[in-house]
Amino acid sequence: MDLKDRKPNEKNISKNKHFIYSLDFAITGLKTAFKDERNFRFHCFALVAVCMLGVVMRLSVIEWIWILLSATLVIVMELVNTSLENLVDMITNYHFHPLGKKVKDMGAGLVLVQAIFALIVGLLIFGPKFYDLIFH
What we know:
Layout: H1 19-36, H2 38-56, H3 61-92, H4 98-135
Helix pairs in contact: 1-2, 2-3, 3-4
């Protein structure tokens, strides 16, 4: 049955009855992204490296908030981008479509904008600390 042939109240799947099921699906999604997506793995490893550096540099609470927020949002944007890419591939059956390309390019733009923001935050926080470490 085609999606447009379905009646509005017709359901394909049922709602999760327990929070634990939703949590299991979310964890499965993260595992899938980590296994299948090179960029997602890179961003996860970068987050771990930045956290280790933050411990060594003894970041303040507010610095931790900025670092974790900006780095975590890169991972969130990567998940959104990956979801969009998979959705386009499913809809187009892996055939090129100009609108599909637009969606994929814009999704990649999401990640790029957030990654640049995270880089700027990282430079603003770690830059002065490295400067003091090297020149003082």
